[in-house]
Amino acid sequence: MLASVITVDWQTLADATGQGAVYALMAVGIGLVFGVMRLVNFAYGQIVMAGAFALALASGWNWPVWAGIGLCFAVAIGLSLGMEVAVFRPLRGQPPAVMLIATFAVAFLLQSIALLWFGSLGRIAASLSSLARPVSIGGVEIRKVSLVSIGIAAVCLLALSLLLNRTSVGLHMRAAAIDFQTARLLGVNADRVITSAVVLSGALAAVVSVMLTVSNPLVTSGFALYDTIVVLAGVVVGGMTRLLSATLGGFAIGFASGLLGGALPTNQSQYVPTFVFGLVIVVLLVRPEGLFAPRGSVDRV
Fold this sequence. Notes:
Blueprint: H1 2-5, H2 10-37, H3 44-60, H4 65-88, H5 96-118, E1 123-124, E2 134-137, E3 140-143, H6 144-166, H7 168-178, H8 180-185, H9 190-215, E4 218-219, H10 225-238, H11 243-263, H12 272-286
Antiparallel strand pairs: 1-4, 2-3
Helix pairs in contact: 2-6, 2-7, 2-9, 2-10, 2-11, 3-4, 3-5, 3-9, 3-10, 4-9, 6-7, 6-9, 7-9, 10-11, 10-12
């Protein structure tokens, strides 16, 4: 019966691919920090939220688009570094459970601050609304944001791959991800590696903020919260022990969510989280180490 009401067209496929690309970038941001610090940062969604509020403020101030995007990057990267210096660095030698609870505390603190500052109604980020308009490709109307999301994700992932494989900082990050203690004994600067990972993670959060505000210009204190939960599930499904598998997991769960959300009738779209997280449970039962991770792999990046 479900198959009889599911309809898939080119617009749905484009939107699903675009959402998968955005979720892949979020997965990379989460995976970078986890690979180096062994920290699942549940506050990552609030970094995206802060960047989106920066875009909304710039839009309200009638700033040029480039200035709003610059403010978004400054806020996201600055907040990421602030969290690292003020919270994560002092707790670096503590058990993983302590670090995990700290990320929850930071997440709810930032969400509460946003609620008190901007109110429950939030703000509108309208400066990039033109990307929500469709373009005609071969007679098919496809939203610009879907194409832009795919292109930006491809460029970001390619640049990150070159950074990790062709630079000394990338080499140090990969070494630290495999065995942090041994890498430090061999001369890898721990603070430099962690700071690099945090900055890259914040920059990716800013990119995600820009993409998500195009699809959803209303920014509230709960902005990107559901997306972060879905991406975290995708990272686990793909395999947290490797950056590539985590990225593929983020793309896969984003594509599946977008495909189901666009293909199902409106009155049945509320079942999408049920299908997605039910599928997550099935995958973890079959492949607990991750769908895209090699069995027995210990490489972290």
